């Protein structure tokens, strides 16, 4: 396929792509570059890259493709710095969360015989850095590609193959449409989560027990607020206009609910909530990016060391394949709940049987 891919930015996304590509054994040289020496060391130790360097020329001069996985605000500077070292027909492939501004900024810099293809994996996490990297992060995720002028058929085919190699599914669209959509499905949720966390913080200054009562609903709706502020600053500024439109729309919906409450309009409340319930059910469940179709169990376990390995060990011994594990414990030193998800119903049935026989409290979700 190609001999060398260089990943610039060995954080959550670069590290995860490196792990998936290295594990595939289809790319002889997966090379890493980062400004942080410790990220390079960890990436090499984890097997995300075959070797890494803080020397930019060394990192990219033999690369068939350079994968940019740094915050959006860093991309332009990096492209400027690597261009003099790239060989002809090298593909620059970025995975930034916004596309239109970024590609407009990068495109004029790209010389003939160098290709530029924009991409965005719709999978990630609130955890920044290589420590959160995972080889299966992109499994079944949608991976948007926004090829434009500085591409050709062969370069695009290569990038599609790379995306499929990491387990993701390609979706082509224009950078403009991509940015309009992610303003709603990704950027607005982050900003709402931020506002929610800060609102409850204010409340807790007055009512100190507020955090104690914050349970699943609060946790589920605010997880993303734990994301890296620098990454989100860059995303927010780069997709500013679309985000502002989405905030306007969100404010309108919230204002309608506020008004309905002020006039105590019971019917309208039911109408709005029912509509939301139906709309959420309509989100496709086939892909990981939306709501994955999984079979779930909730396991109640005492907060003791080793419980997770006892559970996973007993399921593993019987070849039950767990697709997701989530610790739902809200407070330390108390009984906690673990959510186990399976892709096959037969795995769920088997897990239920094994855990019940061990006297572990478990129920279907
Ligand atoms: N986190 C997500 O959920 C997610 C999902 C899809 C796409 N993205 C996009 O992927 C990109 C990377 O995000 P991430 O979550 O991996 O961030 P991260 O903070 O985990 O990793 C970024 C890495 O880039 C390095 N870096 C920063 N500036 C650099 C520079 N000038 N030169 C070399 N290395 C540099 C950092 O040291 C760090 O290791 C961003 O553009 C982000 O918008 C993120
Ligand atoms: O935290 C997650 O689960 C994510 O997938 C993060 C998420 C998202 O909003 O969906 C965040 C930003 C990226 O550009 C893509 C994905």
From TrEMBL:
Domain ACT: 296-365
Pfam family name, one: ACT_AHAS_ss
Domain Prephenate/arogenate dehydrogenase stretches: 3-291
Coiled coil: none
Record keywords, A-Z: Amino-acid biosynthesis, Aromatic amino acid biosynthesis, NAD, Oxidoreductase, Tyrosine biosynthesis
GO molecular function, one term: NAD+ binding
Associated pathway: Amino-acid biosynthesis; L-tyrosine biosynthesis; (4-hydroxyphenyl)pyruvate from prephenate (NAD(+) route): step 1/1
Catalytic activity: prephenate + NAD(+) = 3-(4-hydroxyphenyl)pyruvate + CO2 + NADH
EC number(s) stated in the UniProt entry for this protein: 1.3.1.12
GO BP term, example: tyrosine biosynthetic process
PANTHER family in UniProt: PREPHENATE DEHYDROGENASE, PREPHENATE DEHYDROGENASE [NADP(+)]
UniProt record similarity statement: Belongs to the prephenate/arogenate dehydrogenase family.
UniProt name for this protein: Prephenate dehydrogenase
Organism per entry: Formimonas warabiya
């Amino acid at each position: 396929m190609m001999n060398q891919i260089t990943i610039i930015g060995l954080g959550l996304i670069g590290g995860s792509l490196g792990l998936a590509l290295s594990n595939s054994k289809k790319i002889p040289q997966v090379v890493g570059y980062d400004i942080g020496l410790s990220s390079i060391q960890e990436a090499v130790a984890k097997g995300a890259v075959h070797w890494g360097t803080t020397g930019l020329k060394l990192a990219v001069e033999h690369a068939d493709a350079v994968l940019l996985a740094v915050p959006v605000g860093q991309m332009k500077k990096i492209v400027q710095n690597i261009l003099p070292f790239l060989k002809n027909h090298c593909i620059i492939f970025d995975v930034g969360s916004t596309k239109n501004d970024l590609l407009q900024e990068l495109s004029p810099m790209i010389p003939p015989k160098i290709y530029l293809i924009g991409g965005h994996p719709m999978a990630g996490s609130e955890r920044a850095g290589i420590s959160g990297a995972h080889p299966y992060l992109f499994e079944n995720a949608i991976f948007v590609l926004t090829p434009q002028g500085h591409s050709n058929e062969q370069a695009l085919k290569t990038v599609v193959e790379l995306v499929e190699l990491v387990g993701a599914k390609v979706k082509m669209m224009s950078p403009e449409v991509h940015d309009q959509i992610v303003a709603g499905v990704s950027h607005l949720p982050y900003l709402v989560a931020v506002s929610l966390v800060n609102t409850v913080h204010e409340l807790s200054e007055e009512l100190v027990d507020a955090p104690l009562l914050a349970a699943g609903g609060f946790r589920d709706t605010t997880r993303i607020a734990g994301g890296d502020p620098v990454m989100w600053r860059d995303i927010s500024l780069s997709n500013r206009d679309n985000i502002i439109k989405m905030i306007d729309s969100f404010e309108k919906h919230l204002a309608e609910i506020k008004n309905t409450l002020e006039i105590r309009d019971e019917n309208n409340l039911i109408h709005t909530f029912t509509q939301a319930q139906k709309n959420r059910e309509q989100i496709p469940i086939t892909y990981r990016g939306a709501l994955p179709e999984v079979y779930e169990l909730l396991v109640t376990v005492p907060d003791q060391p080793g419980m997770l390995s006892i559970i996973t060990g007993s399921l593993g011994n019987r070849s039950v394949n767990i697709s997701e594990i989530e610790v739902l414990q809200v407070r330390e030193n108390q009984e906690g709940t673990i959510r186990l998800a399976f892709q096959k119903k037969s795995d769920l049935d088997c897990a239920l049987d094994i855990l019940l026989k061990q006297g572990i409290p478990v129920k279907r979700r």
